[in-house]
Amino acid sequence: MGKKVLAFETGGSTFLSGIIEEGSSKIHGLNKEKIACDNKNDYLEEIILCIKETVEQSSFSLKEINSIGVVSAGKWDFKEGIVTPPNLPFKTQPLPIAKNIHENFGRPVYMENDVNAGVLAEMLFGHGKKTDSRYIGYLTISSGIGFGLYDKQKEEIFSGETGQAPEVGHNVVEKNGLKCGCGGRGHWETYGSGNGVVNIYEELHGENISAKKIYERAEKGDERFLEVIEKAAEYNAIGVGQIINAYQPGLIVFGGTPVFKSRKMVFGKLKKLIEDPPRKNEYTYISEEKLPDLRVSELGENNILLGAGAIALKKIEGKRL
Fold this sequence. Notes:
- By secondary structure, the protein is an alpha/beta fold.
- It folds into 2 domains: 4-116 and 302-314, Nucleotidyltransferase, domain 5; 127-298, Nucleotidyltransferase, domain 5, CATH 3.30.420.
- 38% of the residues lie in helices and 20% in strands.
- It has helices at residues 40-57, 97-105, 114-125, 127-130, 189-192, 194-205, 211-219, 223-247, 257-261, 263-275, 303-314; strands at residues 4-10, 14-21, 27-34, 67-72, 75-77, 82-84, 109-112, 135-141, 145-151, 156-157, 251-255, 293-296.
- A 5-stranded mixed beta sheet has the order 3-2-1-4-7, with helices on both faces. Strands 10-9-8-11-12 form a 5-stranded mixed beta sheet, sandwiched between helices.
- 46% of the residues are buried.
C-alpha cells in the first residue's frame, strides 16, 4: 500500500481536510467547516477538531497517516511553522498553525502557501502531469490573486531569496490606483480578483454588490455588469502578460472560485485578450507561437486540498517540521 497523508487547508472562510493515498486523487473523510472564530485560540482549536473529524469519518486510523500537509495563504515562516493568514474574521499576529498540528498529532508536518500547493496538485494529479513543458504555473483568481511556478526538470518550486515569491497579485497595474488590502495601491488583485470586480463596480456606480451577483448579471448580458467584467479582464490580461514576459512558462493552469463558477466571464475573456489582443504584443512581448498553454484546472475546488496532500507526499522525506 502507498503512503497515506492528511491534507489540511485553511482559507479566509473555511477549513478543509481529508486523507489522500499515494497514487490516487480520491479524498477520504473530506471535511469542510465554516470558520466561525473570533479569536486566535478558538481558531487553532477548531483546526485540531476539523482534522480529528476527518480521521473519524475516514476508514483510516491516525497510526496509518505518514505525514500531514498544511496549506494557507499568507506569509509562512517555515522554520517555525507559523503563518499570518489573510482575510480572517479577526485581526491576528502570525499563528503557529503547522506547529500546533504537529504537537497535537505527532506526525511530520509540511507546509506551503496556497498557490504553491496548487501547482504541486497539478503536477501530481492534473494538467502538469500530462504536459511536456518544463515550467508549469498555477494562477488562482479568487478573493485575491496568487501564482505558483514549478520547474518540472529540477522538481523545484520557485520561491525567491526569502521564500515569498512570486507575489504577482501585488504587481502594480494602475499607478495611484485603488487601495489594496496590503496597504499598497493599484495592485493587480485589487482589480482582477473577485474582490476586484466589487471594487470596480463600486468605483463606477458608488454601490457595493457581491462578486457573485456581478458575474451572474454579466452572464445574463446586463451591460452595466459586463462593463465591469471587461475592465477586470483587461487588468487580468495585463497581469498574466507580465507573468508570461517574466517567467515564460509552458503551461499556466487557472483556479479559484470565480474561474470555476464563472469560467466564460473570467477565464474566457482573459484567454481571448492574451491570444487575440486588439493590437499585436498588447499584453505580452512573447510571440504568438511561443505563448503558454492556458488551461482551467480539472481538479475543481478541492485542488488546493489535493495540493496539501501533494506537499506531504513529495516532502515526506524532507527536513521541514
